[in-house]
Input
Amino acid sequence: MNLTINARDAMPNGGRLEIETQNILFDEEYVKLHPEVEPGSYVMLAVTDFGEGMGKDVLEHLFDPFFTTKDKGKGTGLGLATAHGIIKQHSGQVFVYSELGKGTTFKIYFPACEKSVVVPEKKKDIVLSHGEETILVVDDEQSIRKLIVDTLKPLGYKCIEASCGTDAIKLAKNTPKDIHLLLTDVIMPGMNGKELSRVIKANHPAIKIMFISGYTENAIASHTILDAGVNYLPKPLTPTLLVEKIRQVLNRNHRKT
Ligand SMILES: Nc1ncnc2c1ncn2[C@@H]1O[C@H](COP(=O)(O)OP(=O)(O)OP(=O)(O)O)[C@@H](O)[C@H]1O
Ligand SMILES: [Mg+2]
Output
């Protein structure tokens, strides 16, 4: 881009800009004449303008940072220094051919990639399993409840939401339907998820329980908040993982939770 901008600036009254690409092999013979070049296959990118061209005084400093012949405010003199940096970082070479009044050609050579680029196959659309169970969702963070409900409702699940243990217990009592799953945060203000699960379980013996937490499984187990082996879903939640785990737990033998 900077090369083409420079070309435009070199032709204030308009003119012709050429951009070329070409595969090139630098063999041993060529490398003898240009010892700075490693032999091998290269891809050339050339930018040519037929503008004002450059004299020796300019060519000598062309890639120096802050070297500019443009008016104050017009050029920073960093364009070619940046381009040079990028080319070198890609093990490339740059050559300049220019004559005053005749125009300029910048030729850049990048080492060619011998292997073809493997384009990863487009991921198949993920199909989330549907369900019609009722799920009691308890988390003090509204955004998490929203994520869960927004994921589950369209799949057919019925969700009851509560922001704390006390509310969850009340809602569970007042729900005439079966509640199939308690999906609860572990650490919440007031009652924690484990305490809540005990109370709910006492009133709904068949309910399955799954905990969600931002803490790692190990941290939670070592704080003895949760027993090892409980159903546990780590945050951050993703819809795919959420649905997958929920289905696993709901499909399990009824006697287990
Ligand atoms: N195609 C060209 N024709 C004539 N002179 C050029 C050409 N490309 C670069 N130059 C000269 O090289 C100088 C440095 O170019 P460079 O792109 O580094 O900075 P700039 O264009 O002056 O400012 P910037 O790119 O930071 O806006 C320019 O000021 C100009 O004198
Ligand atoms: Mg420039």
User: Anything to note?
Assistant: Residues 134-251 form a domain with the Rossmann fold fold (CATH 3.40.50.2300). Residues 2, 5-6, 75, 79 surround magnesium ion (ligand 2) (CB under 6 Å). The CA atoms of residues 57 and 75 lie 18 Å apart. Residues 239-251 form the longest helix (13 residues).
